[in-house]
Amino acid sequence: MRLVLPSLLLSVLLLFSSCEVKMPEYVVSPNKMEAFLYDYHMVQSMSSEYTSGNYEEKLFFDYIFKKHGITKQRFDSSMVWYNRYPKHLKKVYENLEKRLEQEVAALGDAKGAVDDGVTLDMAYLAADTAELWTGADIKLLSSTPLNSRLSYAFEIPTDTTFLAGDSLSFSFEARFITGGVSGVKQSLYTALVVEYEDGTSFSVGEYKMTNGNCAISAPRNFASRPKYMSGFVYYSDDDSTAMARLLLNRISLKRIHAPKSVEAADKK
């Protein structure tokens, strides 16, 4: 005997089945979106510490998109879809909130790698080559929210300690520590931003996944003095055991006056 569904019941069943909309291929999957949004919101909180413009913010976000292999266009399109079907986005953020709560709880009262170790004392800067970094020259970073980066940002004094044509550079030796975890993917992104009194700016970033020396510099600008300088090292990994680390050694932040011969040649 055939079972015949009443037309009203059949309509209701069809309505409920149609509510389960298939996710288009262009939409970032929930798991990948969760991982991306974790870094995305971390970067938002980091870039909000700076007040000099959007140079640092752009470097931060460029790195995050590159790390996850997602374009801004795809992210924006995906968020349009997720907002259209909010139950999927709600689930992503529930998982994200749990992850953040677990990591913050694991940190306890640990202090993060905040701005530190920079001196702008005039006597200290009198030499042609001045080491600005006076804090510890070694730092251990992890992928936990409060200890994933080392950063600095400062206004440059309006005196003769900084001149047009100065070379400004940030360097360190990087060593990735796996903590005995096999197959862990680790990376760092470091950036340097310099703004000048004439309104121009320079920014540079470097992505690194192997041990070794890393140095980034702003080219000499003989047209204007530097006004503001900032930079950071941001570390991330995919280690669920939280054993992996990044060791920064021989951290250095230098200001070097241009040799007279170079300055004279530039003015000709």
Mean pLDDT: 77
Poorly predicted sequence stretches spanning 5 or more consecutive residues:
1-18, 48-53, 106-115
Number of domains: 2
Look at the helices and sheets and give the structural class: alpha+beta
Give me the Rg, rounded: 25 Å
Task: Provide a descriptive summary of the structure in words.
The chain is α+β, with helices and mostly antiparallel strands and 268 residues long. It folds into two domains: 24-107, no CATH class; 129-267, Jelly Rolls. The chain is built from six helices and nine strands. The chain has helices at residues 7-19, 30-47, 55-68, 72-84, 86-107, 260-267, and strands spanning 129-131, 138-141, 149-155, 167-177, 186-196, 201-208, 212-218, 226-237, 245-256. Strands 1, 2, 4, 7 and 9 form a five-stranded antiparallel beta sheet that branches. A four-stranded antiparallel beta sheet has the order 3-8-5-6, covered by helices on one side. The longest helix has 22 residues, at 86-107. It is elongated, with a radius of gyration of 25 Å.
